[in-house]
Amino acid sequence: MRETGKKTPSRRRERASCAAARAVSAVALLALAISACSLSTARPPTPYSLNEAVNETLNPAETFTGADSGETFTVGGVSVTGPWGYARASNANRLYPLLVSGFWGDGASQYTASSNSFNKRFPAFVLDWQKDGVGDGEALADWIDLAVSSGYRVDPSRIYLTGFSRGGSGSFPLARGMGNKGKYFAAILRMAGQSQSDLGDAIAAKTALWYHVGLNDEPARVGVARAALAHFRAYPSYSGAVEASVSDETCGVPRSTVTLIREGEPAFRYSEYAGMGHESGTCYRDRELFVWLFNRRLR
């Protein structure tokens, strides 16, 4: 029998149900639109730049002679190089950052290179710490306590870490080990790494990070880097952060950088380099890396 156009009770109920569904969908779309508008109210500076002015309060400028070069000290059987100007009477009450160089010495070598003069513009203790485990981070925290208690003027709020490849992966376990002892890095410069994408929100809430990876590196390393970006975007401590993106060729290759700005600070940065493989020298062509690093202080 051919179906007639008569409206049966079941058909009326079906049409009412469809109308209700359309109404719910309209409300949902409206809510999404309102949500999108509310998210778009917080915008990054336009145009956004990776360049920061040097924090002169944290990093007062000085002029040095050869007599002001950093001495080498031994603390707990471990050698550490002191800052330029450390012995000056005018600096007797000044605390200095500690730059910890993880595997493979990257960061410290660029910092101390005479052609760069970063060690004169940003005087700091320099510690070669070729280790990468949680226990090694705990040992580092103990060493810092020993250095401070021994009278060395290390600023516990300005401990910095650099690491490439194994040192990049190892930067996160070192940070966890430090955290186990109630200490935190103020900032980390991480170059690539085969593993370790989740630093954890408790540490991310305190420690700034600039992550670098070459897109011609192994896909696994690029995947780890992008997973780290996803973690930082999702951490509760970054829930109010404003995201900014910029592309440049400061390092001689195309670079794209995402910055998460938290409470006005560029607390997390993530840079991808087109045409760069598994290396870090290209990244350090940007002098702003050390400006960003030494401008950070523990939250």
Architecture overview:
This protein has 299 residues and is α/β, with parallel strands linked by helices. It has 8 helices and 10 strands. The chain has one domain: Alpha/Beta hydrolase fold, catalytic domain (Rossmann fold), CATH 3.40.50. It has helices at 9-39, 108-112, 118-121, 134-149, 166-180, 201-204, 219-234, 288-294; strands spanning 72-75, 78-81, 96-101, 125-128, 154-164, 187-191, 208-214, 242-248, 255-262, 265-273. An 8-stranded mixed β-sheet has the order 4-3-5-6-7-10-9-8, sandwiched between helices. Strands 1-2 form a two-stranded antiparallel sheet.
Strand content: 15-25%
Q: Quick one: CATH superfamily?
A: Alpha/Beta hydrolase fold, catalytic domain
Helicity level: 25-40%
End-to-end separation in angstroms reads 78 Å
Please report the total strand number as a whole number.
Answer: 10
CATH architecture grouping = 3-Layer(aba) Sandwich
Q: If strands are numbered along the chain, what order do they take across the biggest sheet?
A: 4-3-5-6-7-10-9-8
At CATH level 3, the topology is Rossmann fold
Q: How would you describe the oligomerization state of the chains in this entry?
A: single chain
- The CATH C-level name is Alpha Beta
Total helices: the number is 8
- Please state the structural category: alpha/beta
What is the global morphology?
globular
| N-to-C series of helices and strands | HEEEHHEHEHEHEHEEEH
Radius of gyration: 25 Å
Mean pLDDT equals 88
**Main beta-sheet strand count, sense and barrel state:** 8 strands, mixed
Tally the structural domains.
1
